[in-house]
Amino acid sequence: MEHSSPLIDGVGLADRTRKSRWPARLDLTQSATGLVLVLFMWGHMFFVSSILVSKDAMWTITKLFEGYFFFGASYTWIVSMVVALVIALIVTHALLAVRKFPINYYQFKTFRGHMRMIDHEDTTLWFWQVFTGFALFFLASVHLYIMLTRSDRIGPFESADRVWSEHLWPLYILLLLAVELHGGIGLYRLAVKWGWFTGNDANATRHRLKMLKWAITVFFLVLGFATLAAYIKIGIEHQGHYGERYVPSRLQALPQAVAPTDGIDTRKSV
Ligand code: HEM
Fold first, then answer.
1. 168 lines ligand 1 (CB under 6 A)
2. CA dist 141 to 86, 152, 176, 267, Å?
3. Which atom of ligand 1 has the smallest separation from the CA of 227?
4. By CB distance 3.0 to 4.6 Å, which of 171, 188, 196, 226 could disulfide with 213?
5. Residue 175 CA: which ligand 1 atom is closest?
6. 48 vs 28: CA distance, rounded Å
7. What three-state secondary structure class fits 261?
8. How far apart are CA 267 and CA 270, in angstroms?
């Protein structure tokens, strides 16, 4: 009900009683950044899992992002720029998300009690959303800082050495579980919240969305763990040559096989 009285209008109190649009705007921004991050992660997982096709395939994808096939040389700062953009997206999303976190022990206990009492799957999913989001604060920042500062060390051998010889595999196991569960639940909640794919029967729609959510999550977890296993296998085989850069088979045939690095156009050196 709109309050309108001369007293209120007279001293400019009207604005405060009118419903602020900011919460809705912040919710929309949180949803939008969440959706963009989910789509980014789908792309990221396909690029990183190119190692399952072959080492040369992963090398080619890496060089593509470094501009090698456009500029004739690799510029790894391009990847660092993309990482910086992803970090900005994650920080915005996380800042907006903490508005919804239980902010004290009483709120947390009430929520947990409520969750157990009603035993409602969507409420439980929301708990796991908060839990995995909290975990990502810590897990993703380690990975992102390494990618931001060492984008020159991405490749079949370079990544495998990091995963195995630099002991990143335990972090990747936890990060993979957290990001795939968080992304899957997030997408499901976006679809429910914004009414995507709604059919005539709301319950049937919700059930279908939940099935789709679990199918996507399981697909990316299987792909992710197969990919991680591949990097671990290469890392174990390569530990004796730790730090050696990967040179694709077609360049290995050249007399002085050299790996393309920042600003050096190896094609011309033939
Ligand atoms: C532009 C930003 C990013 C870049 C350039 C990037 C790059 C990479 C690369 C090259 C790998 C292979 C392993 C390695 O070299 O250490 C990897 C693995 C991984 N990344 Fe990222 N990453 C980015 C952002 C993220 C984000 C935001 C997340 C999650 C919040 C994430 C989660 C993972 C996971 C879970 C793995 C292990 C994949 C597996 O083997 O299953 N990454 N990433």
1. yes
2. 11, 18, 13, 36
3. 40
4. 188
5. 35
6. 30
7. coil
8. 6
**Annotated domain spans of the chain:** 30-243
Which residues pair with residue 74 across a beta bridge?
Answer: 262
First to last CA, the chain: 77
Q: How far is the CA of 154 from the centre of ligand 1 (A)?
A: 10
> Would you say the C-alpha torsion 234, 240, 245, 246 has a positive or negative sign?
negative
For ligand 1, say whether the CB of 163 is within 6 Å of any of its atoms: yes
The gap from C-alpha 66 to its chain's centroid, in whole angstroms, comes to 20
- Cα 47 to middle of ligand 1, angstroms: 9
Q: How many CA atoms lie within 13 A of 245 on its CB side?
A: 15
Two structure tokens written together for 163:
């995963």
* Any atom of ligand 1 within 6 Å of the Cβ of 162: yes
Asked if 155 and 58 touch (Cβ cutoff 8 Å), the reply is yes
Where the chain has pLDDT below 70, the residues are 1-18, 119, 254-270
58 lines ligand 1 (CB under 6 A): no
124's tokens: 């439980």
Q: Tell me, what's the pLDDT at 20?
A: 85
Given the candidates 1.10.10.10, 3.20.20.140, 3.40.50.11540, 1.20.1300.10, the CATH classification of the domain at 30-243 is 1.20.1300.10
